[in-house]
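Our consortium's second objective concerns turning raw sequence data into structural hypotheses that experimental partners can test. To show how far this objective has progressed, the report includes one record in full. It was chosen at random from the queue rather than selected for favorable results. The single chain below, 88 residues long, was entered without modification.
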Amino acid sequence: MDGKIFATMTFDEAMVKVPIDDVGDYLEEDEIFFAYGKWTFNHGSIGVRLKKISVARMRQLLKASYEKTKTRARSPGSGKRARARRSR
């Protein structure tokens, strides 16, 4: 979404962005969720074991992550490339 990633998935796991303040709550459910080291604690990216989570809960996580990313999306005229174009 506008160059922002809110989730990535493979056939058996996913990485989803959640609020950093909520990371600890998710990680308590270690059968479903796991940490990706600094990505988890600095950016709120948690791992999800897809075989262990319900479809409804995964859908809810993806929707929340998408909405959070959507509200933080940059405007088209921001970022390194836009600044480089303006400086030419």
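The partners drew two points from this record. The helical segments are 23-27, 38-43, 55-72, 80-87. DSSP finds four helices and four strands in the chain. Both points have been shared with the crystallography group to help prioritize constructs.
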